[in-house]
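Section 5: illustrative case.
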């Protein structure tokens, strides 16, 4: 099982004056998911997605918010690949392939 994944941005983001176009995503920990859930409860789903992207990339939230929207959507899909999927009938996680 992969614990990290490389992700290339089409449009680089700047952090501290340095442009980044290749990000390393790490698998979220339970504490990360718990913290993101708190953001979701306070600020909604979109803010939670931004928070989770920041956690798994190590980027500041401001940098994620400055990211190109299409890059963010693709990044969100990549991050979702780390999370277990629940089946509609049971709500139980399905094995990752």
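Designed sequence:
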């Amino acid at each position: 099982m992969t614990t990290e994944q490389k992700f290339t941005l089409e449009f680089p983001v700047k952090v501290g004056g340095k442009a980044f176009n290749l990000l390393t995503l790490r698998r979220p920990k339970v504490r990360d998911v718990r913290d993101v859930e708190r953001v979701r409860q306070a600020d909604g789903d979109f803010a939670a997605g931004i928070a989770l992207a920041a956690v798994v990339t190590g980027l500041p939230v401001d940098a994620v918010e400055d990211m190109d929207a299409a890059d963010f959507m693709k990044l969100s899909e990549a991050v979702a690949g780390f999370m277990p999927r629940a089946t509609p009938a049971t709500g139980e996680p399905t094995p990752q392939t």
